[in-house]
Design brief:
The protein has 421 residues and is α/β, with parallel strands linked by helices. It has helices at residues 63-74, 93-109, 130-136, 163-166, 187-200, 216-219, 223-239, 301-310, 316-329, 333-338, 356-370, and strands at 22-26, 29-33, 40-46, 78-82, 113-123, 141-147, 177-184, 204-213, 340-347, 353-355, 375-383, 386-393, 401-410, 413-419. Helix 1 links the parallel strand 3 (40-46) and strand 4 (78-82). The longest helix has 17 residues, at 93-109. The chain starts with 21 loop residues before the first strand and ends with a strand.
Amino acid sequence: MTDLPPYLRPFVLPVADAGEVRVERVGHVDLYHPAGTARTGAILLVHGGPMPPGLEVLPRDWPVYQGYATAAAQRGQVAAVVEHGLIRGYDQLVAAADDVEAAVGVLRADPRVDPGRVALWFFSGAGLLAGEWLDSRPDWLRCLLLTYPLLATPPGVDVLVNAAEVIGKQKDKDLPVLLTRVGRERAELAGPVAELVSAGGAALDIIDVPKGQHGFDMLDHTEESRAAVTKALDWAIAHLGEDPTATSTDTLPIPTPTTKQAPVSPASSPAPKTTTTVKNTPAAAKAVPVEASSPAPSVAPDLTAVVATAFSFDTAATRVVDREHATYAAHDLEAFLALYSPTALLQFADGAVLRGRRSLREYYGPLFDAGKCKTETQQRMMLGEWVVEQSVRHDTDQGPLPTIVLYRVQDGLIVEVRFLA
């Protein structure tokens, strides 16, 4: 173990047996889903930084963050780990703040998450990103955790919002904050932490790890470390409104199942009708009616298997498209854009093309502001990384308009969209 770099050493809690925890990568966010179909609170884990150039293993794959996320999911919560720009240097602080905000959008759009119950957990250098959330305190933020945090920027680095300056200035509500501090902290970190403690007052809870060092949750495999991590996890789950020793039994009413169903042939069963969303297309696009499918003739067994797979309901690609639809319906532009590749290509029926998130923001921003985000998905077919949808738009001045849209999903992000009608 001692031959490994610190960030690759094992997590202090035993989480090797992850049970039915399912991990899904969506862009720069890894989502950890617990077993079952209950809607739960959620915890976003924000790694520290910066790290030296040439890092071979990025934070989402470090055992410590995988361990925290798995432990939270085993306790019945959706957990997420966001990879952000601070890992590359302090000059990326603003970009890192944007990355975290986008990750919050992805997490809150997850169909397993109650979007009104989210916790943010900042580690080490990510403490520099916590002040803005302490200052704004959005209604959905139930609590905030700081573990061996860096709270003051080094000389020459632009300051965002200092956590110690805003924690004691509660506005319309108290936001619970948990600080995990270590007894063997580095001097440059210990001073600002002491200032936070002085300013925190009743809003601040503290877990002390007297013999712990910075990174104790991967470096100090002791009962003291394990107890501190367990207490922090239990504190977060309790502030999300749930029993940390038991999972919720409330089922989540979602339009598509989270476990794979038996394939459905279009010849034997009607196409599923769910209310999801498809984005607006330019006014020049002409409507093309799509006829309902008729009974399919007998085909060879291998072709039947292909068709059955195409009409299965749950794939990695459909889960991403479902999240995109949810953020569109919720008029959450940042969460919507976070589900697209930075180099995404959108091609409309009239030949117009959008490339990249900047173009998407310019095009969709006015639509989101106007609240024109209502469509109905009638049929869907999946094949590999492609999702094909027949929908009816109700978000234009031209009345209901049928449309066909093809989505291509790679590595958890939408990379291409084609509007055929």
